[in-house]
Design brief:
Two copies of one chain form a homodimer. Chain A is an alpha/beta fold. The first copy, chain A, has ten helices and 14 strands. Chain A has helices spanning about 40-50, 65-75, 115-130, 145-160, 170-180, 190-195, 200-210, 250-260, 265-280, 290-300; strands spanning about 1-5, 10-15, 25-35, 55-60, 80-85, 90-95, 105, 135-140, 165, 185, 215-220, 225-230, 230-235, 305. In chain A, the strands form two sheets. Chain A has a ten-stranded mixed β-sheet, with helices on both faces. The first copy, chain A, has a four-stranded mixed β-sheet with strand order 3-2-6-7, covered by helices on one side. The longest helix of chain A has 15 residues, at about 265-280. Chain A is globular and about 55 Å long. The interface of A and B includes residues 21, 32, 106 and 109 of A.
């Protein structure tokens, strides 16, 4: 079983503008739609598309619970959250301009997690996660769930002995590297942040890879680099028309881990993940991709050994 | 009594950014706050600050009724809406950048009004509004309440014989001018739109003023021009630091009509309204102004006869 943990979930509110966003005028909306937010939920959705069973864990607020649950159910995501009473799950605003690629993302901080809530999460994990499972921790840390709590969570998972994947950034990513996990997916900038020296970028990746089984560094439209088993691989990304790039990384991580859990060869895991992410950015929401179309795109993806 | 009619009410969701809005990054929010939206509601708030009794009429959705009612109650606004079952009152997003004046406004369309809802509004007005009352119709028309319905509403009010003020734009403003009302507040651009000829701007105002008792044309930081009783007056605006200009016009209209209802001299009505609006733009929300501070600013406002 794969578990995704979204510590700071969000409901994406997609704002479809008439025209482009302009200061000083009334920017009218064509429509408003809702989508799952939270990197772990996106990961779960992506795994579902590959038919890989998974469950979304984490925190959720009760005051707008029905809204979140409706969206998760529509996407076919199975969940088992620690419910935080009297708080709303935060919202993220994804502004989509008419006939303009990409999106403008605005995110709320999220509600404060108490020690009691954290204990309930640890308990849930203790009762559920087994040694043979895979766990993905993705997204930002909510207020009240700080680096100390993340460290405790990571140590709890290491003790269980499951495969630990982390899609984190900043200090949280540093902590994951320090504790030692099985998978990270930083971008180029986040890799630099992990090192004080100005050494060669590829050397940094090699260094990380000594401690972490799978290091995948995303390079945007330049694809990604994967370090595993003393080898670096350069993964290309197919050339597609960008509509909305929100969730592209989550799509990559979800499909990569799903393929890995199915014991597919690494090059297959990488090329499919790259193709799924590229297919996803052609849709205007934060999650959708079509696995059949992605499999066609996969043929365009090259995975080449580096150095 | 003054009645304000907001046909397409909205809840303002104020999004306070860390830094400035940038595409391609995660724009984090410092905080989220709610404020009344809808030009009529803003007018009601402004009238309250001058101690002038008024009531907000119009439509409201039931699915998020508690949210709207909470905000109106906090602002001390008395209301009596036609409730539209199973629909949400729309939201407007006011994005406020850190240390940057002004705001970025994004608005939803609003739910569809049926003939039945419209009939209920006409009925409410029939039962409430008296000849000696003042009515302000402000803001956009919602889907389903089109120019024909607006015309019927204006004719109903004319039949009652009350003072009719309209803060409308586009075709709705044209309709108000055509039917003939007692007050309009177009901006320079909206005045030009009302005429097919390229005549002198001031001549256009004089032309409007033949049919409409009070014509106030807002010119932004250049103040405004008021036409009344065959005279044009130029009203200045005090020089203040702009924080958020959302709702400045509504503040002007609300305080002007409130003063007028108290039978204050026209120059006093104009200078106080200009001062209140200038005081308002120094606050970061869509409504707040301080009447005491505004009275100080009022001394800086000049009202001079034109031509």
């Amino acid at each position: 079983m794969i578990y995704t943990i979204t510590l700071n979930p969000t409901i994406d509110r997609l704002l479809f503008l008439e025209g482009t966003l302009t200061k000083g005028k009334n920017n009218r909306l064509r429509k408003v739609a809702y989508d799952i937010g939270g990197k772990g939920h996106h990961g779960s959705y992506a795994m579902n598309q590959l038919g890989v069973k998974n469950r979304a864990l984490g925190f959720s607020g009760t005051t707008n619970a029905s809204k979140l649950e409706k969206i998760l159910s529509e996407k076919g995501i199975h969940y088992d959250f620690v419910e935080v009473f009297g708080k709303p799950t935060r919202e993220s605003y994804v502004i989509l301009e008419e006939n303009v690629g990409g999106s403008i993302l605005i995110t709320e901080k999220g509600f404060k997690i108490t020690d009691y809530d954290t204990e309930l999460l640890y308990e849930k994990i203790e009762n559920k996660v087994q040694e043979e499972d895979m766990v993905l921790i993705a997204g930002s840390l909510p207020p009240g769930f700080e680096l100390r709590e993340l460290e405790d969570l990571l140590k709890q998972l290491k003790k269980i002995g499951c495969f630990i994947a982390c899609d984190l950034s900043g200090e949280a990513l540093k902590k994951a590297v320090e504790v030692g996990v099985d998978f990270i997916k930083p971008n180029r900038f986040e890799v630099q942040e992990l090192f004080s020296s100005d050494d060669n970028f590829l050397d940094h990746i090699r260094e990380l890879s000594k401690k972490i089984d799978y290091v995948i560094v995303s390079l945007g439209k330049d694809g990604s680099i994967c370090a595993h088993a003393d080898e670096l691989q350069q993964v290309s990304t197919p050339n597609v028309k960008l509509v909305n790039d929100t969730g592209a990384g989550d799509c990559f991580v979800g499909t990569f881990l799903a393929s890995l859990s199915l014991s597919k060869p690494l090059t297959e895991c990488l090329s499919l993940a790259s193709a799924c992410a590229a297919n996803h950015v052609q849709y205007n929401d934060s999650t959708t991709f079509n696995i059949k179309d992605a499999r066609k795109l996969q043929k365009e993806v090259t995975v080449e050994k580096l150095g």
